[in-house]
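Chains adopt folds. We examine one example:
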Amino acid sequence: MFTISVCMIVKNEELTLGRILQCAKKFADEIVVVDTGSGDKSKQIALSFTDKVYDFAWCDNFSAARNYAFSKGTCDFLMWLDADDFITEENIKKLNELKRSDINADVFMCIYKYASMRYQRERLLKRSKNFKWQGFVHEVIVPSGKIVNTDIEIEHHKEHEYDTARNLKLYQKALKNGAKFSAREQYYYARELFYNNKLKKAITEFKKFIKMKNAYAPDVLGASIMLSEAQIKCGFMADALQTLFNAMRICTPTAELCCRIAYIYDASHLPESAIFWFKAALCAPEQKLGFVVPDYHELIPCIELSRLLFFTNFSEAKKYHLMAKKIAPQNACVQFNEQFFSENIT
C-alpha cells in the first residue's frame, strides 16, 4: 500500500474548490493547497479541509508554483489536481484500490476528460524520484522510469470564464524578454494565438512548430488539426486539406483526421469523396495518444454517412443511422434522424 499527497495551486477558485477537496479527502492521505494570490474565499475553503495551506508569490510561472506545492508533499506519491476538476465515486474507489495494490510504478497515468476530449496525463508521481514541472505555461512533467497506465478518470469542469488572453500575454511577455521556446511551448503558443482569433499569426506559428525536429508526434497531429481549422476560417480550403494529408504522412491516420478531410470535401460539394473519408474513419486505428475525441471514431461518421447517403442509398443510410442510434440513442442528431427515417420508411 502507498500514500498520496494531493497538491494543488489555486487562485480565486471559491466556486469549485470545495467540490474537488470533498473528492480528494476520500482517498488522499494529505492535502496541500498553495494559494497564488486569491482575493476571494479560496484560502478559507482550503483551511476547512487541511492545515497545509501555503502562500506563493505569483511570478508568471505555473511550473514554479506547482513545484512549490510538490515540495510540501510528504507522502509516497504526489498527485496534482486543479480546482475545477472532479472525480466520480467510481473513480475514487479505483484510486483507493490502486493505493492498496502492490503495483510497482514511478508514474501512474490517468485519463483526463475535458469537454468531448480524453487524453492520458501523468497524475501520480513517486515523490522519491523528485519529478519537476517544466514550462511556464501549460506546464507538464515528463514521465520517466516505470510508467503504468490506468483507467482512472479525472474530469475537468470549467465553471467560470477565464481571461482568454492571460496565457497569450505570458507567452508574448516571454518572447519580448528574449525567451526561446521549446517545441512544446511553441505548440501551445500557437494554440493560444488560435484561441484569441489571431489566425494568420497562428498559422505561421503552427507551421514553425510542425517543422521542429524534436516535436512530439501527438502534438504534431494536434497542431495539424488546429492549423487546418485556422486555414479554413481564413478561407484557405485547399491549404487546409493539404495540411491534413501532410499529417497523415507524419502520424498514424486517425478517425478525426479522416472526418476532417471528409468535412472539407462535403463543404466543397463533393459528397462521394466525403463518404469515402467518413467510411475510412470507421476503419481507422484507435487513437491512444494526444487529445482524443472518441466520437470521431464511430458516432460522427455514422451520423454523417446516414445524412450523405439518405437520397442515394436509403438502406445503407438507415444502416449507419442504426449504428449511431446504438452508440448514442440520446444524441440530438440521432434523435432528429430517427424521426426523419421513421417518416421515410421504404
